[in-house]
């Protein structure tokens, strides 16, 4: 399947604009992992790259499962239906970023049971006094139940492709790095204020627009001037 550039852009934007959420949820974990490496920048980068790796692996698994379902079902309407649901998830993410109130997101409550099985693995990585241990703990951190990342995982699943699922979650994780790496390095929670409310809201509007375009793609693809662009962006079913 072609790379879905609209979804990747939306995922990266959600990571950047959702930095406040990530800092609130994971600020303590970030600073804790960094402090185990002496509070160095390298330790902060290692832990966060491990987290992005954990996201990517989760996305590959979710996308692979989605692909298996599509491959077994072999129904003509399933592809467009998944594309419609993917667009709806993107709209939900954009709305949550735009709205001042917390909006329940699909996938927000999922992952707790899996995390309970993975949690014991962290014992073998403590104390995190080596780079590989910090990367390993960061990868486990990426599986920690979280509403925003859980919603992106739903988007990865709906793409029904292991590669695109991994890329979607990696794009989300990379989008969080500009805030999370400095936070892990310095523990300066004042960095959370760098996300202005207006930027967050307009970014949410942009992601909503991407979601609407993704939902409409199966119908817009028939238009002569729009169809080729949608195919190039990977946001339309193959001909």
TrEMBL record:
Q: Kindly state which keywords UniProt assigns to this record, in alphabetical order.
A: Membrane, Transmembrane, Transmembrane helix
> What's the domain of life for this entry?
Bacteria
Residue ranges annotated as transmembrane are 81-98, 140-160, 166-190, 202-221
The family database entries (InterPro entries) matched by this protein are listed as: UreH-like_TM_dom (IPR039447)
Domain spans labelled Urease accessory protein UreH-like transmembrane? 11-212
PANTHER family hit by this protein? HEAVY METAL TRANSPORTER (PTHR42208:SF1), HEAVY METAL TRANSPORTER-RELATED (PTHR42208)
Q: What is this protein called?
A: Sulfite exporter TauE/SafE family protein
- Organism of this sequence: Novilysobacter selenitireducens
């Amino acid at each position: 399947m072609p790379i879905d550039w609209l979804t990747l852009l939306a995922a990266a934007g959600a990571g950047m604009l959702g930095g406040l959420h990530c800092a609130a949820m994971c600020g303590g974990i970030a600073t804790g992992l960094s402090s185990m490496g002496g509070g160095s920048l390298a330790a902060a980068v290692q832990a966060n790259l491990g987290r992005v790796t954990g996201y990517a692996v989760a996305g590959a698994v979710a996308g692979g499962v989605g692909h298996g379902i599509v491959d077994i079902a072999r129904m003509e309407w399933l592809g467009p239906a998944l594309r419609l649901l993917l667009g709806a998830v993107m709209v939900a993410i954009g709305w949550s970023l735009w709205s001042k109130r917390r909006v329940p997101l699909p996938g927000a409550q999922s992952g707790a049971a899996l995390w309970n099985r993975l949690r014991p693995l962290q014992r073998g990585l403590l104390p995190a006094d080596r780079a590989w241990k910090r990367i390993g703990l960061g990868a486990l951190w990426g599986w920690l139940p979280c509403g925003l990342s859980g919603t992106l995982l739903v988007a990865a699943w709906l793409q029904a492709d292991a590669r695109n699922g991994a890329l979607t979650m990696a794009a989300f994780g990379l989008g969080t790095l500009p805030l999370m790496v400095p936070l892990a390095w310095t523990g300066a929670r004042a960095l959370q204020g760098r996300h202005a409310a207006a930027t967050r809201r307009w970014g949410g509007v942009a992601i909503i627009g991407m979601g609407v375009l993704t939902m409409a793609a199966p119908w817009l693809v028939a238009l002569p001037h729009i169809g080729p662009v949608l195919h190039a962006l990977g946001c339309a079913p193959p001909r």
